[in-house]
Amino acid sequence: MALAGHTILVVEDEPLIALAIVEDFKAAGASVHTAYNLCDGLRLADHPDLSAAVVDFGLSDGQGSTLCERLNERHVPFILHTGYTHVHEACRSGIVVPKPAAQGQLVSEVERLLRGPAASSA
Question: Does residue 1 sit within a domain?
Fold first, then answer.
């Protein structure tokens, strides 16, 4: 349960992909908040206990750049899980994991993010 005690925001507008991601994080012990559009993602990005986020860039109601900006402002690390090759500048601080990700890949990347920069250079 590597992510026990952590709260992860998953913003994904494709329900089956969202479900698979959420199940992976729950299996790793994380608490998960799910948003299926940009509007809900922005609202949930203000959650006080947020540890990290997984964001789809191309959402049904807009691009994830505003959400990336909000997460950057709050110093919440995030992974951009997207099929897009060109993303907004605000999203470049996140780790980009191309769709489709292998099962467990997003969890592993979030674990690495939460360990911090010292761990990722080892």
Answer: no
At 34, which amino acid appears? T
* pTM for this model (two decimals): 0.91
Residue 122 domain flag: no
Q: Over the stretch 34-72, which tens digit does the pLDDT of each residue have?
A: 999 999 999 999 999 999 999 998 899 998 899 999 999
Domain assignment of residue 84, yes or no: yes
- CATH number, domain at 54? 3.40.50.2300
β-pairing, 50-55 with 58-59? unpaired
Cα-only R_g, the chain? 13
Domain count across the chain: 1
Residue that the structure tokens 């939460």 belong to: 114
What the block records as the tokens of 6 is 């952590």
5 φ/ψ sector (left φ>0, alpha ψ -120 to 50, else beta): left
